[in-house]
Design a protein that fits this description.
Radius of gyration: 20 Å
Number of helices: 5
Largest sheet: none
Order of helices and strands: HHHHH
Distance between the termini: 46 Å
Helix content: over 70%
Number of strands: 0
Shape: flat
Structural class: mainly alpha
């Protein structure tokens, strides 16, 4: 086995490990908190959408929900693939790496499609509505930065 394949397999294992920790989380976990969804009711209210825009909004919310479900299903499938490999007498790291790559590629494609639909929606908004979206993104980014800073402080023993 080439060194690059070994590295990919190990990367796949680390990806699987990261994905596996979230796979058993209940559906009411962080994914369902309003501030983690871009298409929140608060943003919907602030945008004051026209009827056609509102239909597009609802379609995007449904697509966002579907994307989250696809991601959870992908994690479950990767978890099952890892369980199957670890149950074998001889672990096939390449197969595990391939499973991780496949899961990643499927999710990347779904996220790319969703992003394209969200950008199409955004381009149809008025400049005022676009500003509301930009401000919501900035606020979400600031919340994430504060969260990461607090986590870093806890991990380094500073806070």
């Amino acid at each position: 086995m080439k060194t690059s394949k070994i590295i990919l397999a190990i990367a796949g294992l680390s990806l699987a490990g990261g994905m596996l920790t979230g796979a058993a989380a209940p559906q009411t976990a962080w994914q369902d908190r309003p501030f983690n969804r871009m298409f929140s009711e608060q943003l919907h209210t602030q945008l004051k959408l026209m009827p056609d825009q509102d239909r597009q909004w609802e379609a995007l919310k449904d697509e966002e929900r579907s994307l989250r479900e696809k991601m959870m299903e992908s994690r479950r499938q990767l978890h099952d693939a890892a369980d199957a490999e670890f149950a074998k007498p001889h672990l096939d790291l390449a197969a595990l790496g391939t499973a991780a790559d496949t899961a990643h590629e499927q999710i990347y494609a779904a996220r790319r499609d969703f992003r394209q639909h969200a950008l199409a929606f955004y381009s149809g908004l008025s400049p005022e509505q676009q500003e509301v979206v930009i401000n919501a993104i900035k606020e979400k980014r600031q919340r994430m930065e504060r969260f990461l800073e607090k986590r870093h402080q806890r991990q380094s023993g500073e806070g």
